[in-house]
Design a protein that fits this description.
single chain; about 290 residues; alpha/beta; Rossmann fold; 6-stranded parallel beta sheet; 3-stranded parallel beta sheet; 11 strands; globular; binds NADP nicotinamide-adenine-dinucleotide phosphate
Length: about 290
């Protein structure tokens, strides 16, 4: 048996087309959605992520640019830049690329972004709205993108057992809350596993829907997977690869080659969750522009 591929690139293209239509509507009213990325320092992975997101935003007709600050930036200077963007009516979305240098406290920085421009969904107000099921908040892009993969892949979720491996703040924790919501496209029974979970394979083998969001290369093998399960691979990990000119290659948290022989459906990696994260970011940005221009 070989699993059905949940093609994130093709799902993301569908969402980008919808986003572009909404951008055109805004432009016909004289409004161009604006998105600013803030990158502090020169982390190579962050540079690559931001330039990819900026390019996709421009393709969708969003006015996007990146504010690059030196690694040595002090907290007051960064907060001052965020305040300026919060007050700029041409800017509808602000994304602070993680990781920030260790000297900058994540919580203070993310909480400074206006909740109305927090298109990454990391502000405590938006996280609180997620918890309350208040649809006026912005959902974090990766968990929201995974829900869209399940929806567009026509995966039944109601009453299914979802096991999320990884309780990180950006993916696992919000995703577990979303999957457990009383709403169409969710309604799962959720287990949230982490590094202290006892006998992880016995839990993952009970999953109808298994999400790998732990940041451990190729960790989930076919022995972790119930035959026919839906498997979503969130991880982005670098492993050494001398055959690659860069000296490394990117792999997920799921051992795709072995797991695809037992799963019912699986996201490729790359080409699964990553493109959907960007699609949801652009959709959130357009929604911010729509909301702020009412
Ligand atoms: P994180 O904050 O570091 O969280 C990792 C989680 O995995 C923690 O809860 C940790 O448990 C758990 N964990 C680690 N080792 C484990 C093990 N052996 N067994 C079970 N659980 C284990 O990471 P994150 O920010 O959520 O990101 C997770 C992965 O997703 C990373 O590879 C990241 O690059 C990727 N990611 C991808 C996208 C995308 O768009 N594709 C977006 C965001 C993140 P403890 O809590 O006990 O430490």
């Amino acid at each position: 048996m070989s699993a059905r591929i949940l093609d994130g690139e093709s799902f993301a293209s569908r969402l980008h087309r919808e986003t572009s239509v909404r951008v055109d509507k805004l432009k016909s009213r004289g409004i161009t959605p604006g998105l600013v990325f803030i990158r502090v320092g020169e982390d190579p992975a962050s540079r690559a992520y931001v330039s990819r997101k900026e390019k996709r935003a421009q393709e969708a007709g969003i006015n996007s640019r990146t504010l690059v600050l030196p690694e040595s930036t002090l907290l007051p200077a960064l907060l001052g830049e965020i305040d300026t963007l919060n007050a700029d009516p041409k800017v509808h979305g602000i994304l602070i690329q993680s990781p920030l240098p260790a000297s900058l406290p994540n919580d203070l920085v993310y909480a400074r972004v206006s909740p109305a421009k927090d298109v990454d969904g990391f502000h405590p107000v938006n996280f609180g709205k997620l918890l309350l099921g208040d649809p006026t908040g912005f959902l974090p892009c990766t968990p929201a993108g995974i829900l869209e993969i399940l929806r567009l892949g026509e995966i039944p979720t109601s009453g299914k057992h979802a096991v999320v491996v990884g309780r990180g703040q950006i993916v696992g924790r919000p995703l577990a809350l979303l999957l457990a919501r009383k709403a169409p496209g969710t309604d799962c029974t959720v287990t949230l596993a982490h590094s202290r979970t006892a006998d992880l394979p016995s839990l993952t083998r009970q999953a109808d829907i298994l999400i790998g969001a732990l940041g451990r290369p190729l960790f989930l093998k076919k022995e972790h997977v119930k035959p026919g399960a839906i498997v979503v691979d969130v991880g982005v990990n670098r492993i050494p690869d001398q055959a690659n000119p860069r000296g490394y290659r990117l792999v997920g948290d799921v051992d795709f080659e072995s797991v695809k022989t037992v799963a019912g459906a699986i996201t490729p990696n790359p080409g699964g969750v990553g493109p959907m994260t960007i699609a949801l970011l652009l959709s959130n940005t357009v929604r911010a522009a729509e909301d702020l221009s009412r």
